[in-house]
Fold this protein.
Amino acid sequence: MSRSHEGQIVVVTGAGRGIGRAIAERFGAAGAHVVVNDIDGNGAAETAATIEDAGGSAIPVVADISDATQVGEMFDAAIEAFGTVDVLVNNAGLIGPMRHILEADETWFRQIIEVNLIGTWLCCHRAANVMARKGSGVIINMSSGGATRAHRAFTAYDASKGGIEAMTRAMALDLGPYGVRVNALMPGSIDTENHDTEQRALRGVNIPLERIGEPIDMAGPALFLASTDADYITGEVIRVDGGMLAQQRSATVDIYSPSNFPAIEDLD
Ligand SMILES: NC(=O)c1ccc[n+]([C@@H]2O[C@H](COP(=O)([O-])OP(=O)(O)OC[C@H]3O[C@@H](n4cnc5c(N)ncnc54)[C@H](O)[C@@H]3O)[C@@H](O)[C@H]2O)c1
């Protein structure tokens, strides 16, 4: 592939597996220096090693994005290794566990908001300070269909992703005059769980492009947003969902069936 991102310094959070790993590897193959973050040290090390083995440049950095001190240390490590940060891909997020509102508690709600919304803000805040001072930079946040179309049993997750989309627009306004673009990607149903053939078919059945997405499907759009081809795009959310949200009903709303709803007599 073309080394169109030669020399770009890119931080990808949650890049130890799944979508983050695919994006990090693709930036590595395109010539970027990649800071591979994850809370899981083994995953981060594996992704960084894969990039380096393929002739690219990467360092693993273990950090919990919901901890401001660790976020600060991650950016310090990136700057020490490569001099600055040009692109931040805020991919890390907690998808589960699912909880029906009647069975949920405050601890569960706060944990998902802490990682997905506050963690994303902490990374944006630190990156914005680096990027605004040099007059350029790109931030890419990770939304979900849940920002605009609800999943059952996902009150925390959907709220976090709605917040991420609103925050993306607000930051685009704050940072535009400083040369920093802020956008979001909205993945559809992406197979990061190694689903078996039957589950893959079930998840793909209502998608207009007739298949579940692969992590690599997210990489091209991320590289595009980080490129000069996207120089006039900010405050935008790009759907990468095989057409899922273009239709009235999507497959993912049916994953948590109403048959799982608690019976009132079973509640505490
Ligand atoms: N897979 C999908 O279908 C889908 C759909 C919509 C949105 N998304 C979003 O895309 C992003 C990636 O999804 P995925 O399916 O690849 O997820 P995943 O669960 O496969 O991977 C997430 C990675 O983030 C890391 N992580 C979790 N908490 C962290 C923290 N506090 N600090 C640092 N790293 C942390 C995990 O260790 C893991 O490696 C998430 O933000 C998710 O909400 C995914």
